[in-house]
Amino acid sequence: MPLPIPETDGLWLGRILVPDVGPCVVTARDGTLLDITSRDAPAVRDIMEMDDPASYVAAAPGRPVEGEWDWLAPCDLQAVKACGVTFAGSMVERVIEEQAAGDAAKAEDIRNRVAARIGDSLNNIVPGSAEAEKVKEALKAEGLWSQYLEVGIGPYAEVFSKAQVLSSVGFGSAVGLHPISNWNNPEPEVVLVVNSKGAVLGATLGNDVNLRDVEGRSALLLSKAKDNNASCAIGPMIRLFDDTFDLDAVRNLEIQLTIEGVDGYRLEGSSSMKQISRDPEDLVKQTIGRHHQYPDGLVLFLGTLFAPTQDRDAPGQGFTHKIGDIVTVSCPELGQLVNSVDLSTSCAEWTFGLADMMRNLAARNLI
Length: 367
Fold this sequence. Notes:
alpha+beta; eleven-stranded mixed β-sheet; 3 domains; Fumarylacetoacetate hydrolase, domain 2
């Protein structure tokens, strides 16, 4: 089976689960997946903490992966963080969710009203700037101020914990929707890989599954809307920064999204990193620094421009997932992240935690 990454000269790092063995660290060379797990690098985290992860992965001895195995999220011990409201288009949708109090039936009317009031006044605004402050005051005067606009054009970014360490799912797994949600969507995003010193060392793709009705009722329900069983997908592999791919390349990525339903429904969308309101480097600095340390590093979702407003069923209801949907997040530089959609209560339970990983690595004489 071909690997879900582009046939480029990129340096790739990922994780797989081998039955009766456990999680293994892998790279890809010439279309072949190689197991590079060792005592020097029993975890992806260990490689990211090296002085030169790219050189290590490029030269690491490995053996071809054979037999049965499954993809895992390419991060392991890193914290899983996410930024919200980093694109003007999706920021307006968050305002609509809040105004509708999570009721999808009210969204279309509010969307039209907000668009008439705001227009394109938020385009090209630098968050925290004097111009942004003027827009902020104008919106207040119109009665349209929102906490989402505060983090969208104010000085401080929204950064939250998307998932627990080791709980993210990888390519081919089902992503989960909490059963209480009736209005939800995928969020196709770029995910940066950052070490404990705050250095950005690579990138991959992510699906920040979002429950619009839950968060729309109250921003205080963010954790219930975002962090559920199998609600975070990352993969397929990390593309490490080298002379062919760097942070400037990330700033120009065009992310594609396809949703295919068992009912024949199809939706296509995109998210252009060129339109992000906050620079990725600024988002990293707002997440890790003297104010907050991450000894094992972190992965950071950068947010999305994609806002699904196309009706799926009744007019004015917008988009929501149905069980069995196939979601593909892709771009030529990072490959494809493909997941099916199910309820969180039906997805495989997350049972392999930190203690299990440490015991597994110890039993394999890797630590």
